[in-house]
Design a protein that fits this description.
The complex is a heterotrimer of chains A (about 240), B (about 260) and C (about 290). With about 240 residues, chain A is of the alpha+beta class. Chain A has a single domain, classed as Ribosomal Protein S5, domain 2, CATH 3.30.230.70. The radius of gyration of chain A is 18 Å and the shape is globular. In chain B, strands 1-2-3-5-4 form a 5-stranded mixed β-sheet. In chain B, strands 7-6-8-9 form a 4-stranded antiparallel β-sheet, with helices on both faces. The chains are: A alpha+beta (about 240), B alpha+beta (about 260), C alpha+beta (about 290). Chains in contact: A-C, B-C. At the B-C interface, helix 2, helix 4, strand 8, strand 9 and helix 5 of B face helix 2, strand 12 and helix 5 of C. Chain A: Belongs to the RNase PH family. Chain A: InterPro entries: ExoRNase_PH_dom1, ExoRNase_PH_dom2, ExoRNase_PH_dom2_sf, PNPase/RNase_PH_dom_sf, Ribosomal_Su5_D2-typ_SF, RNase_PH.
Chain lengths: ~240, ~260, ~290
């Protein structure tokens, strides 16, 4: 199948190095301590953060740092064909773990010992790159909740189809079976916290693709920073500062 | 008992798919005879007994026409360790159907839904604050489903709770009516339930004249709700008397 | 669970008794209602509804299926509700299942009518394509995203909005096949039929706190309730379903009074909702 036309356009009309439209909104869930909606094209996720609060199961309490928990759920209507999926299937558990580990790397957990932070991500629409969208939404929600972080983690994916590196794969490109590199970075510190790849790639091409994904992450980071700044300004205005 | 058993096969349709194509004309007319020959406002004869299961702390058996139900009560016993402290008791209800309860094997209704309805109907009648930190288990088994399963289960469960010595404000009596065309039919059999336009179920505490649960499905006008509620409440108070006399009977026989 | 002090509890109860609730509303006033339609691109119809801090999404998907043998001339509708853990941490894992089940059952009861199909808000006959062969299966999914009381009413409203937003593709039946064969159908990509929602009822939940009842209770107010009655009323003022929650018993006359209050309130809610849905639809058309 042809994923990049001779004119250099992808199936949804983007250029190979072009990202989908980003949209973010803070405070979507009124009762949560922090929440955010994050959209990457048709992929739409909600993240809600509860905490830091008392640890529910005493056995899990950590004495030197906060306990981070994460749950990833997909809405029944999120995919093209409607499915009633059981909760906690393998895929959800795996993604929950990935998100938790990524967020743990940036939250300053040592400041909040004996406490627990819950991150819940709910996928409303899945169109490829849910993993990245969830991480970006979780970052925003954590920032909204005012949880100390050493940096804003952002994530983006890139692939390699028709001998072209492609940024931010959608569902059709994702399910083509080609290599798919998901990267999560701490943009200010310039460090990689998440790196996953399916399928195989030659070493030199991998470097290119990863470079592309990292660029994508930086673009997301800029956008997230803008959204947060805008939100802070609004809060300031409301306080009359 | 014998007479009822004799009459049952004549009305009981073993293959419900045969006449399901369209509603039998009798149900749409103003006047028709009910499958078991009752009046519209006449309940099925109720047969109630306590102490059906020896191992349980209390139990009861109820038979309303073809609907046969056993309820056993266990507890109050210590709540599971994982549960949080609670200064009032917990009620755990579970309704299950035997595989042979319906004409077609294994075609029983959603029992999770019925279990939660049973819970809602009973919790208002039980003095939960008399057994803090503990749980009472209510296990209901529908041996045969012949219409009006939920009301029978509820009435039977309250009798079993009384038999187990659980403190209650009053016995819970439950009755449902079906709306078929213009007619209201009390205590419907499953055949009537399959063609009903709407149904109304009341569970009440007869001597306190208090409704613990009321469910309505289908389209109803307010006067019709009035009429149906009156019919049900009247039937509930009568059923309450039968339940009371059943308890008295069992108490007097155990004393002898 | 909402943790409230004794003072806060008295404040809520006292406010309700004096017809001035903690957020300044009267007993029979709703919080601001917000409706947005077409939020889920993959669905045939969808809507997001907010009642104050309560937020739900409903989506409608239509798929071709076979009618059941007991009702060959009717389509099928299934309603499922999920409680997202984003709404409350206790819904994590399987924690939300109990509430999800209860909400789904209540919605089915309120929207689908009696066994014979009389009084159903959704006309099942309109979903039939070929008698006994092909019909539409309508899957209605509700998702609770944020919870601040009165979830059932919000879900009812969201489903109504989602169905108003639903376009069922036009179906052409290709050539008369032999009676035993499955007929071939051609689903149109361009032509959609608007789903008729005039018969859909609205759900009004009256929460009884002390001696009074209130509509659209917040979670704080719900924690103080003795019982709540959910009544679904259609445009003709007929009752399409009723369920009761909460342990305390009610006097029959109180229930009848609640029904008449609900009928009165439902009229206002229905009009409010209809205008919100129409506005949301118009806004969506402007966008596209």
């Amino acid at each position: 199948m042809e994923f990049v036309s001779p004119e250099g356009l992808r199936l949804d009309g983007r250029r190979p190095m072009e990202m989908r439209q980003l949209r973010a909104e803070l405070g979507a869930v009124s009762r949560a301590d922090g929440s955010a909606i994050f959209e990457m094209g048709n992929t739409k996720v909600i993240a809600a953060v509860y905490g830091p609060r008392e640890v529910q199961h005493r056995g899990q309490q950590l004495n030197d740092k906060a306990l981070i928990r994460c749950e990833y759920t997909m809405a029944n209507f999120s995919t093209g064909d409607r499915m009633r999926r059981p909760k906690g299937d393998r895929r959800s558990t795996e993604i929950s773990l990935v998100i938790r580990q990524t967020m743990e790397a940036c939250i300053m957990t040592h400041l909040m010992p004996h406490s627990q932070i819950d991150i819940f991500v709910q996928v409303l629409q899945a169109d490829g790159g849910t993993r990245s969208a969830c991480i970006n939404a979780a970052t925003l929600a954590l920032a909204d909740a005012g949880i100390p972080m050493c940096d804003l983690v952002t994530s983006c994916s890139a692939g390699y189809l028709n001998t072209t590196p492609l940024l931010d794969l959608n569902y059709v490109e994702d399910s083509a079976g080609g290599p798919d590199v998901t990267v999560g970075i701490l943009p200010k510190l310039d460090k990689v916290t998440l790196l996953q790849m399916d399928a195989k790639l030659p070493m030199d091409i991998f470097e290119n693709v990863m470079q592309l994904a990292t660029e994508g992450c930086k673009a997301v980071a800029n956008y997230i920073r803008e959204v947060l700044m805008e939100n802070t300004k609004q809060l300031e205005n409301r306080r009359g500062v | 008992m014998a007479a009822k058993a004799g009459a049952a096969p004549a009305t009981y349709s073993p293959s419900p798919t045969a006449n399901k194509k369209n509603r039998p004309p009798i149900f749409t007319d103003i006047d028709w005879i009910r499958p078991d020959g009752r009046d519209f406002h006449q309940c099925r004869p109720a047969f109630l007994r306590t102490g059906a299961v020896n191992a349980a702390s209390g139990s009861a058996y109820a038979e309303f026409g073809n609907t046969k139900v056993i309820v056993s009560i266990f507890g109050p016993r210590e709540s599971k360790k994982a549960m949080m402290y609670s200064d009032i008791g917990r009620l755990n209800c579970n309704v299950s159907y035997t595989t042979f309860s319906t004409p077609v094997r294994g075609q029983a209704l959603d029992n999770k839904d019925i279990s939660s309805q049973l819970h809602k109907s009973l919790e208002g009648a039980i003095m939960l604050d008399t057994f803090p930190k503990t749980t009472v288990d209510v296990f209901a088994l529908v041996l045969e489903s012949g219409g009006c399963d939920l009301p029978v289960v509820i009435s039977c469960a309250s009798l079993a709770l009384a038999d187990a010595g659980i403190m209650m404000y009053d016995l819970v009596a439950a009755v449902s009516v079906s709306c078929l065309g213009k007619n209201l039919v009390i205590d419907p059999v499953s055949e009537e339930e399959n063609y009903q336009d709407g149904s109304l179920m009341i569970t009440c505490l007869p001597s306190r004249n208090e409704v613990t649960q009321l469910t309505i499905t289908g389209e109803w006008s307010t006067p019709k709700i009035h009429e149906a509620m009156e019919l049900c409440l009247d039937a509930c108070s009568k059923l309450g008397k039968i339940m009371r006399s059943c308890l008295k009977e069992s108490a007097s026989t155990s004393q002898e | 669970m909402v943790g409230l002090s004794v003072g806060e509890k008295h404040f809520i109860q006292g406010g309700i008794a004096q017809d001035l609730r903690t957020d300044g509303r009267k007993r029979l006033t709703y919080r601001p209602i917000f409706v947005e339609t077409g939020v889920i691109a993959q669905a045939n119809g969808s809507a997001r509804v907010k009642f104050g801090g309560t937020e739900v999404i409903a989506s409608v998907k239509a798929e071709l299926g076979r009618p059941s043998s007991s009702a060959p001339d009717k389509g099928k509708v299934s309603i499922f509700v999920d409680c997202s853990p984003t709404a409350a941490p206790q819904f994590e894992g399987r924690g939300g299942e109990e509430l999800s089940m209860e909400l789904s059952a209540a919605l089915r009861q309120c929207l689908l009518g009696g066994k014979s199909g009389a009084g159903a808000g959704i006309n099942l006959s309109s979903l039939s394509i070929v008698d006994g062969k092909v019909c539409w299966d309508l899957y209605i999914d509700g998702l609770v995203i944020s919870m601040d009381g009165n979830v059932l009413d919000a879900l009812g409203a969201a489903i109504k909005a989602a169905l108003s937003n639903t376009g069922i593709p036009k179906v052409n039946i290709a050539s008369a096949s032999t009676p035993d064969e499955q007929p071939e159908v051609d689903v149109s990509d361009e032509e959609f039929l608007q789903f008729d929602t005039t018969a859909l009822p609205v759900i009004v939940t009256l929460t009884k706190v002390g001696r009074h009842y209130i509509v659209d209770a917040t979670s704080e107010e719900e924690s103080q309730m003795s019982s709540a009655v959910s009544i679904s009323v259609n445009r003709q003022g007929l009752i399409c379903g009723l369920t009761k929650r909460g342990g305390a018993g009610l006097d029959p006359s109180v229930i009848l009074d609640m029904i008449s209050v609900a009928k009165h309130v439902s009229e206002q809610l229905m009009n409010k909702l209809d205008s919100e849905i129409a506005a949301a639809e118009a806004a969506m058309e402007e966008d596209s």
